[in-house]
Design brief:
alpha+beta; Alpha-D-Glucose-1,6-Bisphosphate, Chain A, domain 4; 3 helices; 7 strands
Length: about 160
């Protein structure tokens, strides 16, 4: 099954303020990943090309890195995921920054079932939580995207 999953958010803060937060991704001082609610993202060599790691049962390596602009991860696990996910920022605006997260992959077998029944829903909630975390730090807001009933159910069952 072909999967294209896109999340974007415009943050009312210039790129010069967003980029330093993105540089902390997968570090002990991570200011992006919502570690308060989700398994921590870990990378064996930090934000470097070829670095391997993941979060929860999802494994990947960095296959493309454009400093202060984008990072692309190639899926290694779960089986049945063939593709990548990418986090990037749009620096075209002086007072705003557009965050983009894209999954582009093909799934097969159990990977398709896992995506449709669970991973997609959990992934969507996680990315919105990460975008909330960034926005709240930079804009002084207290945004919290509400999880739908299926995400709440999956999290209870998987605890």
């Amino acid at each position: 099954m072909k999967v294209i999953n896109i999340h974007q958010r415009v943050i009312s803060s210039p790129p010069e303020r967003v980029v330093p937060l993105l540089r902390t991704l997968a570090s002990d001082e991570d200011l992006v990943w919502p570690v308060e609610q989700w398994p921590r993202m870990r990378l064996n060599e930090g934000l470097k090309l070829g670095s391997r790691g993941g979060h929860g049962p999802i494994r990947y390596h960095i296959e493309e890195l454009i400093p202060d602009q984008s990072i692309q991860f190639r899926f290694e696990q779960p089986k049945g995921f063939d593709g990548y996910h990418r986090l990037s920022i749009d620096k075209d605006h002086q007072q705003q920054t557009r965050l983009h997260h894209v999954i582009d992959m093909k799934t097969n077998g159990l990977g398709t079932i896992a995506w449709l029944l669970g991973i997609r829903w959990l992934h969507d909630a996680l990315i919105e939580d990460a975008f909330d975390k960034i926005e709240n730090q930079l804009c002084g807001t207290q945004k919290r995207t509400e999880w739908n009933w299926w995400v709440r159910t999956l999290r209870r069952v998987l605890k």
